[in-house]
């Protein structure tokens, strides 16, 4: 028999957002976008009902059948509540916007599903604070970010205290934005070879980026890599996690320049510090 909590059902790992300023932040970010909206995990509608005020077509996906049925009775004609698991829900291929308070224990598989899905243009997501920071490249990027950076921009909006949820989780949350790049830094056809390249370099062994690249990507001409490292101002102690999106795509492209002799290397990238509002 399922275990219940007065604020949520434990088997779904739900932590419901109750903080009005955070709800307003999410809605405001969605308001800056265009197109139909898909909400991941509607719960009792704390975010769904304010999103309705934007006057756009809204589809809410909720795994809890009872909550989905209750919320459906409170929504307007532009809103559809669907009882489904987001990880198995068939997403449209036409443009739309994603928004949601992702279950902390499901964050990684949900982000993978999102990044691999076509159609959506923007995503406004509430995730664990440390996940939001690392996905946005604050304090060093993750492998997942590096693998998807040529096609998506990641941004950190704000930190959300654990007290903003019921039941209260053990960690804070963070508002993360993801925007599909138009145009991308690399063509779609390069996705698989680039992601393999990024994985090899990111997990490579060695002291310092130049040695890691030499060992992990021997297909890149050594002299060209050395010139690129100097041009980018990369120090001997820097690691793959310290690279930013433009540097990753430019490094990968070093191996393609013989096939495209007219292609120029990207200029040195000026770093900007990424921070979030507390």
TrEMBL record:
Keywords: Methyltransferase, RNA-binding, S-adenosyl-L-methionine, Transferase. InterPro entries: KsgA/Erm, rRNA_Ade_diMease-like_C, rRNA_Ade_Mease_Trfase_CS, rRNA_Ade_methylase_Trfase_N, SAM-dependent_MTases_sf. CDD domains: AdoMet_MTases. The keyword Ligase does not apply. GO terms for biological process: methylation. Residues 22-182 form the Ribosomal RNA adenine methylase transferase N-terminal domain. Pfam families: RrnaAD. S-adenosyl-L-methionine binds at residues 15, 17, 41, 62, 85, 101. The keyword Protease does not apply. Residues 254-278 are annotated as: Disordered. GO terms for molecular function: methyltransferase activity. Belongs to the class I-like SAM-binding methyltransferase superfamily. rRNA adenine N(6)-methyltransferase family. NCBIfam families: Erm23S_rRNA_broad (NF000499). This is 23S ribosomal RNA methyltransferase Erm. It comes from Streptomyces albipurpureus. The lineage of its organism: Bacteria, Bacillati, Actinomycetota, Actinomycetes, Kitasatosporales. The gene is erm.
